[in-house]
Design goal:
Immunoglobulin-like
Length: 428
């Protein structure tokens, strides 16, 4: 049972500092979302990634090959005593709706798993418990939703997280990306590719194969391709001539480094230790609409948790983080400060408020010590979402290609090919 004294304390500092109402989610009012989401304010910094032993695993998307069980879930619960949490796996269609595949088809075990590994924070202003869990091995390739819940009540959800399991039966080959010199092309990026399946039988591939393209692990602007451009025996071509699968290229991400509070890192203006939690003010940002493209390395929207003051992962504190965007006047649309740190969610927690006296937009979020990428997205009728950042085809971006197949004898969509691509790779 949740400690409501602690919950009330968290509610007080959240309401005072963040300026929004903390809503208590009764278990019977929680609606499962088939997306990356948290259902309680105390659940923070949710990570799901393949643990292969490499230093940069945490930046990898939650995609794994069939037969592997290397996916790891991590999250924090901002309370002082641990709770009993469990996990279940929900099969999904290619477009993230509940699938009709049953548990016996996807798992070797009963679909209920206890989260038994946890660690208490030490010497932090905001107490929390860090949980970790190794996902079970999956039998069938496809889309899945990990759902964590409290005790034995599956309706008392605390988080949901998407992951994908693929079986490399098909081959993805990149083709020319048709980048041109027109003004439209110079704002966008495009990927052309073909799929070959000489050794795998696809029945009615023109209708049964679906492609999903994703940029920088974002779902809100993912592109779904329902039919290939050309069909040859054993080969599907996806070439685009009218910008059908173009992505706005965007810009390199903005970033800040608050891994150290004693010696603030890049783009941290100052640190106020007198507040609880500690307050970090990020240097004010300016719109980059008319700025020329500048190349620098970023994390393509990701973040990395680290405490350089002590070195201990359990000693990384949660910080009240203030964002400021300079603007002479209010724009015709809502502005959100987003990144993987908040699943690119454009909601009340990420929207910026305009102060006409100071001529700035502001937003505050509670974030764990680390280094973060972020950008400002605009949601309006007349402005491009990247209006404040600019679009430059030279920008480095990560892309993923997911190839799904609806087999006639199955009730789900099989993920039969997967490929990661980095356009304008700085390491090459």
């Amino acid at each position: 049972m949740r400690n409501f004294g602690l919950r009330a304390s968290l509610a007080v500092f959240t309401i005072i500092l963040l300026g929004f109402t903390l809503y208590e989610y009764p278990a019977n009012n929680k609606k499962l979302l088939y997306e990356d989401a948290t259902y309680e304010e105390e659940i923070r910094t949710v990570l799901l990634y393949p643990n292969t032993g490499r230093a940069n695993d945490v930046f990898s998307p939650p995609v794994t090959a069939l037969g592997s069980n290397n996916l790891v879930l991590e999250f924090d619960d901002l309370v002082e005593s641990h709770e009993q949490y469990r996990v279940k796996i929900v099969p999904c269609t290619y477009d993230w709706k509940p699938s009709q595949v049953n548990n016996l088809d996807i798992l070797y075990e009963f679909n209920e798993f206890n989260i038994t590994r946890y660690e208490y924070s030490t010497d932090t202003k905001i107490a929390y418990i860090h949980y970790s869990f190794n996902l079970p091995r999956i039998k069938l390739p496809g889309n899945y939703l990990l759902v964590a819940y409290r005790g034995t009540d599956e309706k008392d959800i605390i988080l949901s997280k998407r992951f994908m399991v693929f079986n490399p039966n098909l081959n993805i080959q990149l083709m020319s990306n048709l980048m041109g010199i027109s003004s439209t092309n110079r704002l966008n990026q495009q990927i052309d590719f073909k799929i070959t399946y000489e050794n795998y039988e696809l029945i009615n591939p023109m209708e049964s194969v679906k492609i999903v393209l994703r940029q920088n692990q974002q779902w809100h602007n993912a592109v779904t391709l329902n039919r290939p451009t050309f069909f040859h025996e054993g080969e599907l071509e996806y070439r685009f001539f009218n910008y059908e699968n173009n992505f706005s290229a965007g810009n390199e991400y903005r970033f800040f480094d608050m891994r150290s509070l004693r010696y603030p890192g890049q783009r941290v203006a100052n640190v106020d230790f007198s507040t609880r939690p500690t307050t970090v003010n990020i240097m004010p940002d300016r719109p980059r609409i008319y700025q020329a493209y500048a190349q620098y390395n970023d994390l393509n929207g990701d973040f990395y948790i680290q405490n350089q003051d002590t070195g201990g992962s359990s000693e990384s504190d949660y910080l009240y983080t203030n964002f400021t965007l300079l603007a002479n006047e209010e724009l015709g649309g809502d502005i959100y400060v987003v990144g993987k740190m908040n699943n690119y969610k454009m909601d009340n927690s990420t929207i910026m408020e305009y102060n006409p006296k100071r001529k700035v937009y502001t937003n505050s979020q509670i974030l764990k010590q680390g280094i973060y990428d972020y950008k400002y997205l605009v949601k309006g009728d007349s402005l491009n979402s990247n209006y404040l950042e600019g679009n430059h085809f030279e920008a480095e971006n990560d892309y993923e290609i997911f190839v799904y197949y609806k087999a006639p004898n199955l009730r789900g969509d099989l993920l039969l090919a997967y490929k990661q691509i980095t356009l304008n790779n700085r390491e090459n």
